[in-house]
Amino acid sequence: MKSSSIPPADVTIQLPNPSADNSGKVYVCKKISNRNHLYVTTVSGTILIDDETTHTITGDKTTHHFISTGSKYYVIVP
Fold it and tell me: How far apart are CA 72 and CA 22, in angstroms?
């Protein structure tokens, strides 16, 4: 996708499943359009992200950081 194109519908991003290899790693997701929602989940869809299996970013130009513990993710909103 070109950086100038804006998806017309909701978007889902899949984080890698947490593991010992990515423990402590931070992933950053930014919603760039007010026309849709950004859903963040994991590849398996069952891993917890702040005690939920899906995290939703709704605010335009909003950035959330996701840190892996090796077994789940925590969300950090700057």
Answer: 11
